[in-house]
Amino acid sequence: PSENHQETIHNENYDQKYNLQNLNHQNLIFTENRPAQSLNGTWTFTIDPYDTGLRSDWNRLSHCDAAGRPVPWDYDYDGGEAVPVPSCWNMLRPEYYYYEGSAWYAREFTYREQAAGERVFLRIGAASYDAKVFLNEAFLGNHYGGSTPFCVELTGRLQERNVLQVCVNNTRTADRVPMRNTDWFNYGGIYRDVELYRVPATFIKNFKIFLAPGASDRRIRAEVEVDGPVRDGALRLELPELGIEQTLPVSAGKGSLELEAAPELWSPEQPRLYAVRAEYQGDAIALRVGFRRIEVRGTEILLNGKALFLRGVCVHEDDTVLGKATDEADLRRRFADAKELGCNFLRLAHYPHTERAAQLADELGFLLWEEIPVYWAIDFENPATYRDAENQLLELVRRDQNRASVIIWSVGNENAATAPRLSFMSRLAEAARKEDPTRLISAACLVNEKKIRIEDPLADYLDVIGVNEYYGWYKLDFTELAQLGRNSAPVKPVIITETGADGLAGYHDDAAVLFTEEHMAEVYRKQVKFVKESDYIKGISPWILYDFQTPRRMNRYQQGVNRKGLIALDKKTRKAAFYVLQAFYREKQAEGK
Ligand code: GCB
After folding, report:
1. Ligand 1 pocket by C-beta < 6 Å: which residues?
2. Is 50 exceeded by the pLDDT of residue 316?
3. What backbone torsions phi and psi does residue 105 show, to the nearest 5 degrees?
4. Domains and CATH numbers, the chain
């Protein structure tokens, strides 16, 4: 083949060469605690603002044109800038800070078959937003969604030396999830782990284990899905600390089992985890799982049958050095700061955070709200946008389905109450419930401003109503907050999923002056009072633990930063409001909540 110059400069439909959006939750394999070969490290990186790579096939690496000239003409996969993966390109150089568009990542790796018949999967933890994967020149598929993992099978395509390329595009478009307008930074790149997994010809593709829903806390249910030629057989299941060794029958690729057991139940106070081992056809997985029951009765949220008050705070993935990438130290600091605040609950806003967050929450004893970026004015009438949103939701659910810490799946945030939005988001709620009947479904809703009332038609589809309200900030008049309380009579539990105010750390003046720490602290005092007076409010997660970078906040106090953090952008300096919330959470804790 030779590069057709005419075609590459005149054809604007280059995207149609690719069979797009074929890497979805169905491609995910169960990776927890499987040995993996890391493909993190140094990759080459080439920004491609005009999408020349897709037009003129930068994946065709080893050809010559008719005149014997090597193609591609305008790219060397091994000649790009050396960058670390995972990382956000925005943080690598000042010139890349605001870059939005395509960039090509490439690296070589060697492969040697270890076991006859093994299958090999590439897993990318997250790449924002559209990632096209090429191995040894072949296009293997693409993935939409900037915060969930995806897998692509490489079996049969590997050589001893391989060239892997990923073209990542983070352009904000009206049909994506999120769309063009958000209040956080649009980081780009491969910013979570890249790994190779080797599994036997038949392997455990999906596995979940949980306390069986129902009246007693004495039944554990395991469900498995296998992939490969041996679709009928027996899976061996072991929970040594509970003395369980059982066989789970698999037929036509699927199986389930319920068994009597009396695990100590997981809770934030006692985050007890049990070792679980499963083996099928020589494929073995090992994980650590907590067992707990989460349910709603009237306006109560019950954890293991006990009424719960969620002492929470929202967090973003954002860091002045790492961007949206996180490391262990950043994550552990987040949980330590939340613990100091007195939290038992974190809202991981507004998109799936790293899977390590939920693993740590399991160990450290935090309850989690996890969310997909169905944020503000998504293209609710577009079926492709729905497919994308649902896929991100199911990828998140499948990824974190064994985490006791995760109690709520949120299908979105602050979406105007229109008919297309109701149909879109109620479908999402149903999809989440079908995939996972063991957790609660929610969304962060707006208040009905005309009626000054907690009222949203989506609430019919939710177990818990999330409410974002900014009385004292976007609405300066606090009397409306009291009205809101009087006018509302929700029949389901409510969590104040957001409230807060900007406060510039170190800026002090009278509490009437906006952007001061004093004003922010006063808003918190009044919000706390409101929560105490409203018996249907079963939790609160103010906005937000840390200040964060966002290009839509540009006034003299903000300068590119949302200043609603209880802790400043340095992740150290506590603002006055931190201590107001801490005092409230201490009271709640003293009441045993
Ligand atoms: C909201 C959004 C959140 C914003 C916040 C704010 O309601 O859900 O993403 O950052 O308000 O600061 O305005």
Report:
1. 183, 350, 413-414, 468, 498, 543, 562, 564
2. yes
3. -105, 140
4. 5-199 (2.60.120.260), 214-292 (2.60.40.10), 305-590 (3.20.20.80)
